[in-house]
Each structure stands twice: as C-alpha cells, then as structure tokens.
Amino acid sequence: MPTLERRLSAMDAANIAVQVLSLSAPNLYRIPQPLRTALAITVNDEFAELAAKSDHRLLWFASLPLPDVPAALSELHRVRSLGAMKGVILCSTIDRRTLDHPDFAPLLEELSPSRLP
Question: What pTM was computed for the model?
C-alpha cells in the first residue's frame, strides 16, 4: 500500500475528500487456516492505524477470517472498538458457499442489528 502521505496527496490531487479502505476479493478466504486469523488482525489493525492518522479522511471495512465463523465473530467483536471501521467486506462466495448458506447465519445475525454495510 502507498504511504499515508502519498495516499492523501493522491486524494487531494483527485479532489477526493474521503476514501474507504478494504481488502479486495478473494479477501482472506483462500489463505490457509493457521494464518487467516492472524492476517485478519494484522490487516484490520493496519487499516485502523492509517485511519486514525488521516484526520478523518480514511475509513475502512473490516476483513473477517471466514469461512471460520467463530473466528470471524471474535474478530468482528474486536474491530468494533477500533476507530473509523464503517463496515465489513464480504465476498458473495466463501469457500464455495454463498452468503445465504446456513453456516454463515450466526455471522449475519450478528451483523444485521449493527446496520453495517
């Protein structure tokens, strides 16, 4: 990723006031399980740190270590306390299962009342 200064400078040059950071598809889903949760924590912490230093110009969507739903719920609870987190990035298919698969119901039930995108 570019440095914070370079990102903000590019935003200024393009007349962009606010940017939302996220880890794109396939997100962390294809990373082997022993690394997935640690990477989710690292990515989310880095995005939170960048956002905190950006004078409210950077927001971010959290990455969750899916398809491990218990680990995803744990990380969701942790990132809620980190500043500028405005949503969760989910791909439409996770480990060959669509988001309406019953395995993901506990996560969706947790996300629903929060109204996070």
Answer: 0.90
